[in-house]
């Protein structure tokens, strides 16, 4: 989530002295998760990075993903409840011990009767659906709330990036399995006994169940998707016709079950499988990887930038014409790996690109909880 600070706030370390504690609530239906609490967030940061991998189970295709960003403004000394303690200490040292104890006791009673803990305010919300599902990271809009107290407003840019992946349950879970008799057109249209499993929009068939248990590849696979026509046989009971079009030609597969009840069971799951492929749209066409919260947490973090985009921009210029125009490296005697930040730091006179860090940002590499500090290449010249 990018933040907006004025150039004097971020680059010159002047102006806005506020510090925040930020976390998010993510919900789909009645299932709610909270993210890591990022603290402190000050003008030295240009974006918020949450390393959490959140997984929702048994979600329908018409789900609504809701993101809520909550923030709390911290005290100047980074301690939320330190001001009353300071007052008590000052009272004890400035006036008599007896009067100081009475005043301190009254302050303590006042604190105990109030709300315990910090008060987090809703800063922004976002809603995503199946249409925003993608296998890679995309940028989405947020609706920023307008607070009455502008000093408590977290300077959000109004956008956030995330990877919203979806995988239908029928992809990772078996829908139906059992013994089937399949009409094999390659052996003089003979009926062949096989064991079948319906999963991941395919009906996979093995000669024996033991072959499936041993992890062997199926001997035959029948596609079951939104284009598949599934219907019971009109002439023969216990038979199901599965029709697919491949390269303009109709491919018909016929399966036969042992009993009529088995036929109804297979017919119900086959039709449901085809409907699921239609409901889940592009999420069913390409299977997306669902990362686990434990194993993917560190690998996801490693893919993030280790510094600002400004610092990682190389000064490399290629000229494809016959005329050789001097490049930036040749003019200033730099190597192709020289970046903008190294060029600015090597200059003898201070420039706009040189900046000092906030006194509270001693952890220069990462935030608490392993969050990488990154910077966005834009700022605002005026305050809201």
List the helices and strands and how they pair.
Layout (H helix, E strand, L loop, with lengths): L6 H4 L9 E9 L2 E4 L3 E4 L23 E9 L9 H12 L2 H17 L7 E8 L9 E4 L1 E2 L14 E4 L6 H4 L3 E9 L5 E10 L2 E5 L2 H5 L6 E4 L5 E4 L6 E8 L2 E8 L3 H20 L2 H4 L9 H8 L25 H5 L7 H7 L38
Antiparallel strand pairs: 1-2, 1-3, 1-4, 4-5, 5-7, 6-8, 9-10, 9-15, 10-11, 11-12, 13-14, 14-15
Helix pairs in contact: 2-3
Description:
With 384 residues, the protein is α+β, with helices and mostly antiparallel strands. It has a domain at 170-285: PH-domain like (Roll), CATH 2.30.29. Helix content is 22%, strand content 24%. It is built from ten helices and 15 strands. The strands form three sheets. A seven-stranded antiparallel β-sheet has the order 12-11-10-9-15-14-13. Strands 1, 2, 3, 4, 5 and 7 form a six-stranded antiparallel β-sheet that branches. A hairpin with a 5-residue loop joins strand 9 and strand 10. 17% of the residues are buried. The model is unreliable at 76-88, 296-313, 317-321 and 338-384 (pLDDT under 50). InterPro entries: AHD, Cytokinesis/Rho-signaling. This is Anillin homology domain-containing protein. Residues 1-133 form the Anillin homology domain. Residues 336-384 are annotated as: Disordered.
């Amino acid at each position: 989530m990018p933040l907006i600070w004025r150039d004097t706030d971020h680059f010159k370390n002047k102006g806005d002295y506020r510090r925040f504690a930020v976390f998010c609530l993510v919900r789909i239906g009645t299932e709610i998760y909270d993210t890591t609490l990022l603290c402190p967030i000050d003008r030295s940061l240009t974006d918020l990075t949450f390393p959490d991998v959140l997984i929702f189970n048994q979600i329908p295709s018409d789900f609504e993903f809701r993101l809520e960003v909550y923030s709390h403004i911290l005290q100047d000394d980074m301690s939320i409840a330190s001001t009353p303690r300071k007052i008590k200490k000052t009272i004890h040292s400035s006036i008599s011990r007896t009067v100081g104890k009475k005043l301190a006791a009254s302050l303590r009673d006042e604190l105990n009767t109030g709300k315990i803990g910090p008060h987090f305010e809703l800063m922004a919300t976002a809603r995503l659906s199946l249409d925003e599902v993608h296998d890679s990271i995309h940028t989405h809009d947020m609706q920023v709330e307008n607070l009455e107290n502008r000093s408590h407003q977290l300077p959000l840019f109004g956008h956030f990036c995330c990877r919203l992946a979806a995988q239908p349950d029928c992809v990772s879970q078996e829908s139906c399995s059992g013994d089937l008799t399949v009409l094999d057109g390659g052996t003089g249209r003979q009926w062949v006994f096989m064991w079948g499993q319906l999963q991941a929009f395919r009906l996979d068939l093995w000669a024996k169940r033991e072959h499936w248990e041993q992890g062997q590849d199926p001997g035959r696979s029948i596609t079951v998707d939104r284009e598949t026509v599934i219907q019971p046989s009109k002439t023969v009971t216990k038979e199901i016709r599965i029709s697919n079009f491949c390269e303009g030609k109709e491919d018909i597969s016929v399966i036969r079950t042992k009993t009529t009840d088995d036929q109804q069971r297979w017919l119900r799951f086959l039709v449901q499988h085809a409907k699921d492929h239609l409901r889940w749209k592009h999420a069913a066409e390409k299977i997306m990887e669902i990362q686990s919260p434990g194993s993917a947490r560190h690998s996801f973090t490693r893919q993030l930038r280790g510094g600002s985009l400004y610092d990682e921009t190389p000064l490399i210029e290629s000229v494809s014409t016959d005329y050789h125009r001097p490049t930036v490296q040749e003019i200033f005697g730099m190597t192709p790996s020289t970046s903008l930040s190294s060029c600015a730091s090597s200059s003898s006179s201070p420039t706009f690109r040189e900046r000092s860090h906030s006194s509270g940002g001693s952890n220069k590499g990462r935030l608490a909880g392993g969050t990488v500090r990154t910077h966005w290449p834009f700022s605002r010249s005026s305050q809201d």
